[in-house]
Specification:
The protein has about 90 residues and is of the alpha+beta class. Helices cover about 35% and strands about 10% of the residues.
Length: about 90
């Protein structure tokens, strides 16, 4: 993984988030636990490993511009469809 190495506390938090269902799928009533970690503020800033979302492959980086819309590379469409990353972060846990 490129970026700053997670602290022990960040590693523990990341592990807990990785056990959560995809936050977007969950909005739709589908509990998909096959997730990847998405860093909403990159991976180099202080505490960056706390600002993470559990996203399934389809919602994280599959590359769909239509449903399901992936965050990479369609951030604007993703936000319009599902909410901002900060709003989604409030739904984790």
């Amino acid at each position: 993984m490129k970026g700053r190495k997670p602290t022990k506390a960040e590693q523990e938090h990341m592990s807990l988030v990785a056990q959560q269902p995809c936050v977007v799928c969950k909005q739709k009533g589908n509990y998909n636990y096959r997730v990847e970690i998405h860093h909403i503020n990159g991976r180099t800033k202080k505490d960056c490993h706390f600002d993470i979302l559990p996203l399934c492959f389809e919602h994280h980086r599959k590359g769909n511009k239509d449903e399901p819309i992936s965050r990479h590379p369609y951030k604007k469409r993703f936000v319009n469809a599902y909410g901002t990353e900060e709003e989604l972060l409030q739904q984790v846990f």
